[in-house]
Amino acid sequence: MTGHEQGVPIKQMRRDKRLDPEHRMRLDAAIHMQGRGWLTGRDGGRPWTLSRTNRVVACFGALVILVLISPVLLGLALAIKFSSPGPVMFVQKRTGYRGRLFGMYKFRTMVANAEELKESLRHLNKHGADAIDFKIDKDPRITGIGGFLRRSSLDELPNLINVMTGDMRLVGPRPTSFNAYRYKDTHLARLSIYPGMTGLWQISGRSNIDFDQRVELDLNYIAEQSLLLDLKILLKTPFKVFSGHGAS
Fold first, then answer.
1. Measured distance CA(118)–CA(19) in Å, rounded
2. DSSP 64
């Protein structure tokens, strides 16, 4: 979870599928080319993370979860609306599959002008003022209800909408708020699959790690990807969420 929020008007958010040729070549050179079918093991087939089965299972799972937790979503929306001025949800520009930008839905957990205050707080970044990742312990911009939402990861429940639209999967690397141009070459391979709501980082028990260490976990997931691994991660995630693991 990043330590800042940058809202994007829904009508202005468009999926960014065009990258300049030089950057596209940089991506292609770094991305782990997954050429073995997940079901048949045949070379040239689709791996699990990019399979149509994964897409269908993720979409159906997200729809079922949304229906089951709709009363919870309504309650959280009302709590946010009446606790501080500003919208209930916001759309934040994130980097997804192959560096494409998309709008990720989240519940608002910060004051409405959080982005305007970001630069004045950069010196408090726990990874260093010039670090690629931006996180602050006890961020003063977080609202009262926002702190609870973050500790419980409930602010990320609207990500289910992104799973249904196809920009995300249930399991995969968390999408970053900075674009692929800021990635080092050693980071780019994590963009070879779709981002997810949860992943190895969330269940690893290692909450205070930097981006390089997160990439290591993402690459481990890419190397070991399978339906069984996804089920294992999904089953473990609620226990980590209830314990407040990884929240900031």
1. 27
2. H
The encoded tokens of residue 114 equal 């959080």
Which tens digits make up the pLDDT trace of 31-72? 655 666 777 667 667 889 999 999 999 999 999 999 999 999
Angle at 5 (CA atoms; ends 4, 7), nearest 5 degrees: 160
Percent of the chain with pLDDT over 90: 48
Return the number of other C-beta atoms located less than 10 Å from residue 158's C-beta.
20
CA-to-CA separations, 169 to 25, 51, 84, 166, in angstroms, rounded: 25, 11, 31, 7
Q: Is 216 left (phi over 0), alpha (psi -120 to 50) or beta?
A: alpha
- Cα separation, 163 vs 184, whole angstroms: 27
Q: What is d(CA 183, CA 174) in angstroms, rounded to the nearest whole number?
A: 14
